[in-house]
Amino acid sequence: MKDRDLEKKLDSVQSRLYESQRVVVLTGAGISAESGMPTFRGKDGLWRRYRAEELATPEAFARDSKLVWEFYNWRRTLLQPLRPNPAHLALAQLERQIPQFTLITQNIDDLHRLAGSKNILELHGNIWRVRCTKCGKITEDRRVPLPELPLCSECQGLLRPDVVWFGESLDPEILRKAYQALDSCQMMLVIGTSGIVQPAASMGLHAKQAGAYVVEINLEPTPNSRFFDVSLLGKAGELVPRLVKSAENL
Ligand code: BV8
Ligand code: ZN
Questions:
Q1: Which ligand gives the minimal distance to the CA of 159?
Q2: pLDDT tens sequence across 96-127
Q3: Residues paired with residue 218 on neighbouring β-strands, in sequence order
Q4: Which fold has domain 45-81+136-163?
Q5: Ligand 1 centroid vs 56 CA: distance in angstroms?
Q6: Which residues pair with 161 in a beta bridge?
Q7: How much distance in Å is there from the Cα of 74 to the middle of ligand 2?
Q8: Cα–Cα distance for residue pair 216/188, rounded to 1 Å
Q9: pLDDT tens figures, 176-232
Q10: The domain made up of 2-36+83-124+170-249 is a member of CATH 3.40.50.1220
Q11: Atom 15 in ligand 1: which residue has the minimum CA distance?
Q12: Where are the beta strands (DSSP E) in 86-194?
């Protein structure tokens, strides 16, 4: 049984959501945890003796592209059979019910799209896309696993994952759309993110300063919790569906 305080918070967040015209959601690895995808900083975040920050960098790729590709092939192999969980599905439902709904995700796992979300801003790219390091060609390639060192079908250049690595800039057009939504939203949900990696980590505060009501959903408090209006502690797969009204109750 959820504590009474949480129930009351959930009810008030739900009614505020359905009174809003413009809503932004920011998600992190925590929303995919219940689909079976390890998060970055959770206990299962380690991969062999490396951390993602040491492998998801252009320097690591230049130094040892085979190892970096092993890291991404391991994640692609893990991810391929996984399905969206109730939290992903609930956000896709919310998008259909709220007039202006923008989903900003840090995740590269494509699970929001699989769940039916449409208006998605993928801040850090997508693990199923590859980019040629020579001619820049971007293609979707769902082979699992990819060859050890995948080459471009056009120019035989070495392919890389089409994701944003640490130290790389985010797509300016995606950032422009994200801040446009953050500047004009009335409400924002920040779900399953530890609030460490910039610029995503400051987006909740940005929306707050622009006048939005900001709700955090996480297993535990984060460094950003104190800036937000409400912090709902619990599993995204349980709490997010609780915020969605069924069609007949709209
Ligand atoms: C940039 C794609 C301008 C790849 C990712 C020094 C040199 C260079 C840069 C920097 C520097 N110092 C700081 C920086 C900036 C750097 C940064 O922020 N570093 C951090 C480590 C301090 N940022 C960048 O480099 C960005 N670019 O700033 O460009 C620039 C250019 C040049 C030089 C300087 C600046 C690019 C960052 C993008 C990196 N790419 N991903 C890949 O995935 O392989 S980041 C990756 O890690 C994710 O995308 C995500 O963003 C982050 C992980 O965070 P979370 O998603 O929050 O996941 P985490 O595991 O941490 O937390 C999970 C949370 O969920 C927890 O809170 C947990 O409690 C909760 N949870 C778990 N289960 C559940 C749950 N909640 C609810 N329900 C559950 N069931
Ligand atoms: Zn090429």
A1: 2
A2: 999 999 999 999 999 999 999 999 999 999 99
A3: 233
A4: SIR2/SIRT2 'Small Domain' (3.30.1600)
A5: 10
A6: 130
A7: 24
A8: 8
A9: 999 999 999 999 999 999 999 999 999 999 999 999 999 999 999 999 999 999 999
A10: yes
A11: 198
A12: 100-105, 120-122, 125-132, 138-140, 159-163, 187-191
